[in-house]
User: Fold these one by one.
Assistant:
Number 1:
Amino acid sequence: MIFEYCPNCKAYRGFKRHFTIWTLILVCLTWGAWILALPFYPKRCIVCGMLYDEARKINKKRKQKEQQQENNENLNITPEK
């Protein structure tokens, strides 16, 4: 499980792969071959279901925006003479 800030929940949550009964059925129907597909299941927020990759993209944009605002604030501050 990976812990990351979930923009949907607005809190730090765990992200993990979620397997259902249909996963088990597919594994049985394909005589176990479907097990090879399990590592490619997307990681999702355990509360709201948001994809981990989407959360990372949003968090990256948010951090870039915060850094840019901080840089702009630092540029506007000039020492008085």
Number 2:
Amino acid sequence: MFSRKSREQKARNFLEHRKRGAEAALAEARLAIDLDWSNGGNDDTFIRKLKETVDGSLNALKTEIEGATAPEQLDSIQGRIAQCSSKRAYGLDAPRIQTEADACIREMRTWGVPQRYFDEHLRPLQEAVRVALTEACRPGNAAGCSASMRRAQSTLDAIFDEYAYWDSYTERYVHRSLTPMVRALGVAGLLSLVAALVSGFVLHQHLVAVFSAGFGGTCVSILLKQEPLAVYGDSIKALIWSVGRLLTGVLATVIGMGLLASGLISVGFTVNPTDSSGSLVPIHVILGACLESGSDKANVASVAATSRSDAATADAGVAPLDADGSDAGAPAPTAGVLRQAPAPLPCPRRACSNTALLLLLGFAILFGFSERVFARILAQFEDRDGSAPQPNTSSTTIISRGPEPPVPGGGALVPADEQKPDVPAGQPTPTPAPGQPTAAPSQPTAASAASDPTVPAQPPSSGGTPPPSKPFGT
């Protein structure tokens, strides 16, 4: 009961804190609008109507803040306050418009806005402001000055909206998406590495230690490659890929350790520091010895426990049971006479030294780090559908030339250089016989015109194929 009241009180305090923050944002927006619109422009009918609309919206938002009962309502109210505050752009002059636009763009760059979004959305808005202000300040453009200024102000209004959106989005992304994911991956990676060390050096479960180390390396790899800020679609995709990359890291560890155990990778290491001969042990021998020694040590512990149990049973005068749990009919030993316990199996402790185990854990972590390579390979296999690769047209716009124009007479259009007869080298060009029409001289090509300065440039004919247009943006 006390805990429930404490949670309710904490929720009420949090809601009051959010209300005070919304009221502060409302007062700041009203002050900014009044200061920017006080320099002039109130004689414009559009500005007067806009100011009346904004004042009415701010008063309505103040009433909504007082009656809000959930933090989600306050989030929506703060978003509408930012939209009202962006309308202050219509009260700024040309120098302030350029300054405010550049300042907002620079600050959004410091937030880590993705470069693709910046190039596709923010940079065109910044360039549009500069173009509009250049047209507005051009001498002799009194007729279009007002329209250019209004276009620059509306573009600055859009920049203010982008600024408010990314201001709210970055805060929500950091607190609700990035921070929980970083904590989960960090804790999982740290616990996995600790579990690998404990399983390998204390419990002698080397197989568990190897896979724990691989999982820890995968967590650290995903954590280091996590995007600090991503758009909504990319953040959802990153969440799905993070789960897939965790499983891919485990698969990469299995595949890598299997390749090492098969002897396909023949690499030697010195695992015994006291060995002065400098002999190298292959990695697959080290892997096999460590995995087998882990199971042998478990068997040794089981045999030792059985021996202690049999000794205690013989000391009590009770005949021990066979391995299948039945009494073989052997007489009970005399009380006080200990039954000789079987000799324990030799513990192959030196078969897998600490150096060798650390080496295997390092390989497992390395395979876990390579999860991104395996993920890309698997993605390529999934995307491969047998079709030919499409050309990359992201940077150059390809303009189609359309079908070839028809030729009178039904023939195909043949270039002029292909209409000339084949003449062997060193022989003069044959002249037409008397009475035959003389062929029209061929037009000079672009290459010959460029090499011979005496040949004038020929404009394209109306019946031929037009030259390809220059790609947009080049």
Number 3:
Amino acid sequence: MDDYMKQHLATFDELEVWLDDRMAGLDPKEAIIISRALEERIKRLGAYSSELRLGAANKLHEEGIKSATIQDEDKTYTVTVVNKARRTEVDRESLVKAVERLATEPTLRVDSVTGELAPIEQVRRNLIAKVFRFEPRWAEINKLGLQEDEYCSRVWSRNIDVEEVHTL
């Protein structure tokens, strides 16, 4: 990190000290104005942070690096490239029908307490409650052996997880 960036990050530290010293004494109008100004900047800085992380993730991926240790002046970070999926265009109707069809499977109908076969309607209700909330519960759907790609599209993105390493 260059001196220019260090200088501006130090300004954040100074702002924190200023806020710590004065926050309790601010009148409501001043507090709201400062709060909104901070929120606007936090949003913009968050966008920059996300862009920086994505750029770093893409560069590390291009170089074939899955994990790295990065040393700052006084901190060490472990950085891991992770791929995440976001499901889109979920065909909920077809997925519900597929889960409902599975209610006839004898292995899913066995009552764990009695060992007897539960009624299909009861199993159907239980399965729907188990795998759906407001959105489908994909881990539960996958456990049933359904292929999620038949019911949605996935948009993949790359990011990195950064963890500060604490040394003794």
